[in-house]
Each structure stands twice: as structure tokens, then as C-alpha cells.
Amino acid sequence: MATTAITRKNLVQSLLTGLIIGVLVGAPLGWFVHQFYAERRLAEVLICREKNRNQPEAVLQSICGSWF
User: Fold this and answer.
1) What are the DSSP calls for 23-41, one per residue?
2) What is the rounded distance in angstroms from the CA atom of residue 16 to the CA atom of residue 5?
3) What DSSP designation does 20 have?
4) Which of 33, 32, 35 is nearest to 43 (CA)?
5) pTM
6) Are 60 and 49 within 8 A, CB to CB?
7) Do residues 52 and 63 make contact, with C-beta atoms less than 8 angstroms apart?
């Protein structure tokens, strides 16, 4: 069985290829997940504020949390 040595050049190329693919796939995926979470959180806060609309702002902040 013949074996070939892995050279430093091959390791660096593999690392750079993985990094580029990770950035190209990870950035849009992260943005999508962030948008989904932010919209869901905003909806939860708005629903909570609507349910407790007769309360003062300080009480709303403690019950529902911040918008952001």
C-alpha cells in the first residue's frame, strides 16, 4: 500500500477552501436565522404589550422585556 505525505501546501489550501466555503454558506445562514429570531422576539413583545396595555411603562418593561 503506497502512502503519500501530506504537504504543508495541501494543508493550507484545504484550510483556505474550508474557510471560504464556511463564510459563503455561514453568513447568509446566520443572517436568515437572526432575522427569524428578531421578528419572532418582536412579535412576542408586541403581543405581551397588547395584553398588558393598561400598565405603566416600567411594569411593561419588567413583564415583557425590551423591544431589542
Assistant:
1) HHHHHHHHHHHHHHHHHHH
2) 19
3) H
4) 35
5) 0.63
6) yes
7) yes
